[in-house]
Amino acid sequence: MSQVAIVTGAARGVGLAIAQRLGSAGRTVYMLDVLEADLREAAGKLGHDGIQAIPMAIDLASQEQIADLPKRIGQCFEDVSILVNNAGIAPIASDGKPILGPEIALEQWERVLTINLTAPFRLMQICIPAMRRRGWGRIINISSRAGRSPGGSSGADYVTSKSGLLGLTRAFAHDVAASGITVNSIAPGRIDTPMGMSSSEDLLRLVRAKIPVARIGQPEEVAALVAFLAGEESGFITGAVIDINGGALMI
User: What Enzyme Commission number does this protein have (predicted)?
Assistant: First the structure.
């Protein structure tokens, strides 16, 4: 059974590591991102490694562009069996600190919720019919430790979007389980990515000090977990949230 995977936010960081891991296992990977130049460069490097990686520039804040995705992918859209909703934004102030709830502008709030929560909702709606026809599908939503417990360097908009993604995961998992589709969330802690390392060095030192394994996570570690949830062996896991944070949050 040929498998096509869609990975959002795939130009760099965790999304790129996920695309590489899924592609290395023989899947055709559609890499979605708004960073078109970075995306094409990343897909080109994966292609040199023998991975079938197709870059597709998209602004997940645009409902029209999301709705047009099946047409852009074409006939291969019927083979979509893996969806990884990884893309997300976390606006911070000029001093690198989170913008606290009382100071968040409505425009920022709506943009964060649109990209981090509404876009995954719409992509799941769009991809599930093809998965149902195949009788098999894997959806993995990348939430965050911030969605499990607020605080740290995350603003209220980001926390709310990632908490909502956990609820959305459970709701969809319940609704599509009988169709052979699983829907799960991963909640990473601090990961070595451009977003994860954008805080000040002082804050990063504090973060490391609070992680029991005494280091920051790597994108490849998240990708390995995604690969497991995207495989056959994970078929009895659905509606779950799996923490990957070095022990920084134990629930």
Answer: 1.1.1.100
The pair phi, psi for residue 7, each rounded to 5°, is -125, 120
Among candidate residues 158, 163, 187, 216, the one labeled active-site is: 158
The C-alpha atoms of residue 244 and residue 97 are separated, in whole angstroms, by 23
Alpha-carbon distances, residue 56 vs 3, 49, 66, 73, 130 (angstroms)? 18, 19, 11, 9, 19
Q: DSSP per residue over 18-60, as a string?
A: HHHHHHHTT-EEEEEES-HHHHHHHHHHHHHTT--EEEEE--T
Residue pair 173/157 in contact (Cβ under 8 Å)? The answer is: no
Domains in the chain: ranges and CATH:
4-244 (3.40.50.720)
Alpha helices in 79-144 (DSSP H): 106-113, 119-134
With contact defined as beta carbons under 8 Å apart, do 215 and 246 qualify? yes
Q: CA 19 to CA 53: how far, in whole Å?
A: 8
Lowest-confidence range among 56-60, 162-166, 238-242, 246-250?
Answer: 246-250
- 199 phi and psi angles, rounded to 5 deg: -75, 165
**pLDDT (0 to 100) of residue 86:** 98
Tokens 């990708």 correspond to 223
Listed in order, strand segments (DSSP E) in the chain are 4-8, 28-33, 53-57, 80-85, 137-142, 181-188, 241-244
58 and 35 Cβ atoms separated by less than 8 Å: no
Average pLDDT over the chain reads 93
Q: For the stretch 212-244, what's the b/e string if a residue is b when 16 or more beta carbons lie within 10 angstroms of its beta carbon? A: eeeebbebeebbebbbebbeeebeeebbebbbe
Question: Considering only CA atoms, which of 197, 108, 198 is closest in space to residue 158?
Answer: 108
**Percentage of the residues of the chain whose pLDDT score is greater than 70:** 94
* 30 in active site: no
